[in-house]
Amino acid sequence: MTGRARKGTSVRFSPADGVVPPHASDQVLGLRFNIEARYGGTVEVDLVGERPRAIVVAFAGALRRQSQLGGSLGARSTIKQHLCAYLRFFAYLREYSSAKTPADLRADDIDGYEDFLEASGMTPIRQHTVLAKAILALRSIDADQPDLLDGGVCQRLGYTSRRSVGRSQPRDAYSPFVARQLRDAARGDITRIFRRIGKPLESDDGDANLRRATDDANARIVAAGRLSSGERAFKSLYFMRLRRGLPVSKLAEDLHARFHLRSRDIPPLLTLLSLETGLELECCKALTINCLQNPGPGTVEIAYVKRRARGAEHKHMRVRDGGIGTPGGLIRKLIEATAFTRQFVPSENLWLYYYTGRKQLRAGLEHQQELVASWIKEHGLVDDDGEPLRLVLSRLRKTHKALWYLKTEGHMARFAVGHTPEIAARHYADVPSLRPLHEATVADAFSEVLATANPVILAPGEEESWRQSDASSKERHDRDSILRGDQDVWLAGCSGFNRSPFAGSGEPCPQPFWGCLECRNAVITARKLPAIIAFQQFIEEQRAGLSASDWAMKFGRVHARIVRQILPAFPESMVAAARDEAEEHTLYLPPEARQ
Fold it and tell me: What is the pTM of this model?
């Protein structure tokens, strides 16, 4: 752009403004440095002792570039994962390669590293993720110094793996039984947590000295936010309680628990919030005190950041708002309960709590698995097999989605909230815990189709109900005609000989007479039992003259229909009487049965 911009003057550009400056190479060659991650804090990198040194220097530069603003690595945990993958690659090069500099690397080194990962027992997906980190670093090196790497290596960097990664095993949801246990335990604990906050530890009213020491300790926490075990007020109270036989093992936690959330309070809070909202675990951890926005009648929006959604990280979710049992009410109560702690910890993170240790007041959540395991053990929660539950917090989102899927009865338009129907179906509906439901639905559908295609079998009681049921005059006439036998064929009554499902409209039915037992137009009553039994006897006699395959092809289906479906629908006494009648009288058998 030429000159200074002036008010009322159009902006003009010169041809030089469109020229992209050459890429500046990384001039920092240090192997011990810190990276300020955009999320999660500082990563301390120490690669001084790694070899081959020249390759380590190049990878260190790639790690810095990828962690800068606009780079692909934003979270502290992700940067550490890439660093660990680099160390694995360096170890492979030292053991199996003669390459000392990036220029010495060859495509066989990358392929050999992939084979090495496979031989170590990694799953294909795990191999892909570990190999991809080294590939990304080499691509960054190639972009920074275009002529440094060998041509074969540059060509090999065009893809990650030579093998198919396959489909990952979807993270499963917990069952409704487990979800109900978690929700009940969390709600009970949360009620006790918020009743406790704001009520300082009380002393024995009959002991003035103990009461004074307790008040001094509470006053110290009010003034400084915390009371360390080395302070005089704490020691005085500790020994007073010890001499009086009062519990002192958790004195520091009991004192602070009346003013702050405790680390052991986090599992129930996080569990209920994730179960009620379906937010990803990392999104729950990153919530701030300003996350509640745009309140409406009984609802409010939660503003959160989803770092994995490149280009659409900032998202909103509308949730219920009311008491602490609703997501909006729970978050609002959390903000209120941590207001005192926030005076001493300048952070907008929603999660502020007291942790017994050197750094007693903390912001943000880390390493929750031990606390979660302790919480599960405290409540004695079990899985579907009655074994102690192993709660993985990242599965709570899938659990929320699975429960919503059951509530919407699989209606994809209602279920796919925040996702396309394809993503919702693949990632949240196709999970192992919902597979029995899907299989039962398919089985029910097949049964319904089969029932629709089958003949109508009327046992004596059903036949009488059919006669007395309400119907229009035309339907009543057709029904009575069938029951009287006006439209009988050999094995059944026919409700539409010229409306056969096996022929066009108005054409006579082309099926052999035993096809009636497979036809939805057929109505089978007790009157037809002697003919059906006679036909059963006939086809059983045909076994002697036909091969097993020929008999099964011609009579197998109809024989199974008679034995398994038709005869069991009638009382045994009625079947026995029909069998006697069939034996006493020689019934006419249509000639097509002998063809």
Answer: 0.66
